[in-house]
Design brief:
homodimer; alpha/beta; 4-stranded mixed β-sheet; 7-stranded mixed β-sheet; 19 helices
């Protein structure tokens, strides 16, 4: 072991005297173990497959109890649909619509029949076909932070977002292949007027990234603009867009048991055009949902099934995703909490429900931390392992989400990319082919040897293991000489290196011209009304 | 929602204008969401059951390939046993022992026959019967950091350990019920002479904690002293000790494929007295083991099976644990890495192997970080979720382990306790009984209401969710006014509060007297030789 005396000894847990221990342990050398630079274009992360067995926090009986209770809620309590057009569609499909109000009740048969037509797996097209993603089955699709009012980096602090921040976060999303789609506005660009903001933002999504993207459902006109921009971005006809889902929207229930008008307009506009609808109740146990996880799941499931049923009533077979976003509040303060044990249970249970209905499952990468400390990492890991064990197909807010969604952090984005890549590496199967079992290498090295210079090692060494971007594996002394940098320091450096290396993905000039003309025309028309 | 306007809205992902967003998002109030004080005596964590389905990173064919290859290694390559007495025992049992050397080869039948007598589950007795633990099956037993040459806290920095540090870390281990056992010397007390150190340390384990403890296998005399101290601590006869495992030792293979003499003395002394032997190869892929995870597992399994076979040859039915400690090195530097995707795979695969042999499974809570930053948390979470998904029964180094085992950190201890408690909370099943499904509460609240003041919520609110010790859920403004404390700050405060609140567990004065007399006599005899 002379050339590699920095390795921990075999008998790490048994000591034979201090001097010996320190000699054996102390040798992690100066330059070794330094964190890596960011590497973009890692095409190996474009497709992430989760072929591991799914976990279960509910037994069959518990799963059926939640399913049945949610059907009882739909039958007996019902859901308020705040858009007349939606109520009329539901009435025509056989739902029991209160003639003098907004309440809609669904019998069990109607729900089962409606959701049966939803596809279990489908392709979401990007303007670059290599960035198409498939939602459902064993696929894992990560989309970037969305909808934060603030953004932050350590150099400039926490602030309201502007267009430059918005664009820089899009550039980060474009730079890492493990981010498969953007997920909405990573931060709200408050320097753009609300009437035309969506036009500039959606045009930027087409220009600055070549990945699939999302449109907010904040009124019919915005949906229509987004659908047209998605069509222009792909350079296809309206008929082809109708055959090929190329845009997604997230529809939140206004829990408990209510869908607001703009959301319902979004369902109708998107589903009728065969675009992707991600139905996501946001059910904080103890606040907008019952304080028990079982009860919150009953409510989540009732709301989700009602929304999914509507998509299929609007257009049979249109692409829809079962979303779960159940967490808990801090029981002493009422503050929302994320990445908690209760959140994990709800995520894994949500996956069980989605699979029961053979639907793609949307979950999230959440945390409530205010800074890039240990809390930010452990809440994130709780969220990511729940998503992984629970079979999440679409992981929203996968990179950059902080403070329960209030802030998009540039450094958190890098931390999350590293963690998402670690999850993807974990999901790669162990190769047990004869060469990988290494029997010949074990025979050659034999007892008491080492594997540093063997042919078996040299043939594989360079790519055998994941190289984290943030992990600082230098020994304590070298790390101290380097100023004791934390993960926060490394992430700060790497996000800046990544932005400096960013390159705009190629875009057909004719498409860019058509896009600019559309945006200019719609701006000249005044954009959309902002009085809602 | 007037009295609780600090809750995130249902439509968290859709924005209807900035002012509204900020109003909806910005309300996490000043004192709300503050981290908790440490709470000791949390008896609910004394028994942790993992009834979730076990994960699998190997399919049946892959598992058998590793099993078969490891038997081939034992048959064709063999293991070096560096203690004549061990070789003689193995020869008498039918192994093929090199008459002129140290090599021992095992045929498949011998291995299968030997390991068949090992129990799949057994009780490890503590001096306080309420602290007994069961190893195996669905049990999770966490033992504290062990064997670090250094310790650290933020006030005093990183330093060689002394008796005071040693005792303070024992006190932390005693203070939290989620720590079920100590695991060796949390830090090496370098101010105690090596010849008598084990006497003082083991006596402290009996006095300062009432939990099960560990003895190093560093020579026969130390084993014998430890067994006697365990007997005295429990106040039982030698015959009762022989019937009731009351002490455990970790036996590391000196990988590749070798067991050193002190380790083998430990196996013989402990197994012959029916005490617990935890066989743990330490197989760093790319260093002391093949660079492939499959190959490293083949070697781990061969070494583990050889050690386990020896325990059963020494005494049929003696309690033994299958330990795995396979990780990888940094491929660019040779530095050891922990909590990596490769480490996770090895941990889950190790669990599959242990279950194949119907043996309790030992794994660890590892990380390579130098400070309490995001890295320390994400590497830890990778380790803990692998242990959980993989069915770890004994999680060594569960709290306090830093820098790949070089440092026992007081703050990391607190972080880990919080994370272990979160894992335990996650493992509690979701109650889906009628009241917990909350149908009546959902009926009462109806669409558009909230659950804050409902009877269903009030009856459960206080204990519905886990209250983390470290998570700071205050809003950004209040958190900023408080000085922007990180998890590191909170952990620093909590470890000191915990030490200040520590109380020695009751100990029969007669036992303490006998213990002190034994230690005094053995010290007077000079302790043990230190020339090994």
């Amino acid at each position: 072991m002379s050339e590699r005396d920095d390795i921990l000894p075999a008998s790490i847990e048994n000591t034979a005297g201090d001097a010996q221990r320190k000699r054996r342990h102390g040798g992690r050398s100066a330059e070794r173990g330094k964190p890596r630079r960011a590497v973009s274009g890692q095409a190996k992360y474009r497709t992430v497959l989760n072929n591991l067995p799914r976990s279960a926090v509910l037994d069959d009986q518990g799963l059926e109890a939640i399913h049945e209770a949610s059907l009882t809620v739909l039958e007996e309590v019902g859901i308020d649909f705040l858009l007349p057009e939606a109520r009329e569609l539901l009435r025509a499909a056989g739902a029991d619509v209160d003639p003098d109000g907004v309440r809609v009740r669904f019998d069990r048969g109607l729900v089962a029949e409606a959701i049966a037509s939803a596809p279990s797996e489908f392709r979401l097209h990007a303007r670059n076909p290599e960035r198409d993603v498939i939602l459902g089955g064993n696929r894992v699709v990560n989309s970037a932070v969305a909808s934060a009012p603030y953004c932050s980096d350590r150099d400039h602090g926490r602030r309201s977002g502007n267009q430059e921040d918005f664009r820089n976060l899009l550039k980060l999303a474009q730079s890492f292949d493990i981010i498969h789609a953007t997920g909405g506005y990573p931060v709200e660009p408050t320097d753009l007027h609300a009437s035309v903001r969506h036009l500039d933002c959606l045009a930027d999504m087409v220009k600055l990234t070549d990945k699939a993207f999302h449109a907010y459902s904040l009124g019919r006109e915005r949906n229509l603009d987004a659908i047209e921009i998605a069509r222009i971005g792909r350079g296809i006809s309206a008929a082809q867009l109708d055959a090929e889902p190329s845009l997604f929207t997230v529809i939140n229930a206004s829990s408990p048991l209510r869908y607001d008008a703009p959301m319902l307009q979004g369902v109708i506009e998107m589903a009728s055009r065969n675009q992707v609808v991600v139905i996501t109740p946001f059910t904080l146990a103890g606040a907008m949902a019952p304080v028990t996880i079982a009860g919150a799941l009953v409510q989540q499931n009732a709301e989700a099934l009602a929304g999914i049923a509507l998509t299929q009533i609007v257009r049979k077979g249109s692409p829809v995703v079962y979303g779960g976003f159940t967490s808990n509040v801090d029981m002493k303060s009422g503050a929302p909490a994320f990445g908690t044990p209760e959140y994990m249970k709800a995520v894994v249970a949500g996956g069980q429900l989605a699979r029961r209905y053979r639907l793609p499952y949307r979950t999230s990468n959440t945390c409530a931390a205010n800074t890039l400390d240990a809390q930010s990492a452990y809440e994130t890991m709780m969220s990511l392992w729940a998503a992984t064990q629970g079979g999440g197909n679409l992981v929203k807010h996968a990179a950059g989400w902080m403070e329960g969604g209030l802030t998009a952090s540039f450094e958190k984005f890098i931390l999350d990319v590293d963690l998402l890549q670690m999850v993807a590496e974990y999901l790669k199967p162990i190769d047990t082919s004869p060469d990988e079992l290494a029997l010949d290498a074990i025979r050659d090295v034999g007892p008491g040897g080492h594997y540093f210079g063997t042919a078996h090692t040299l043939a594989r060494y360079e790519h055998a293991f994941y190289s984290p971007m943030l992990s600082d594996w230098r020994n304590f002394e070298s790390w101290s000489l380097a100023g004791q940098p934390t993960s926060f320091d490394h992430a700060n450096r790497i996000y800046k290196e990544t932005l400096a290396a960013y390159q705009r993905p190629p875009l057909d000039p004719a498409i860019e011209e058509e896009l600019d003309a559309f945006v200019a025309r719609r701006k000249a028309e005044g954009g959309v009304a902002t009085d809602f």
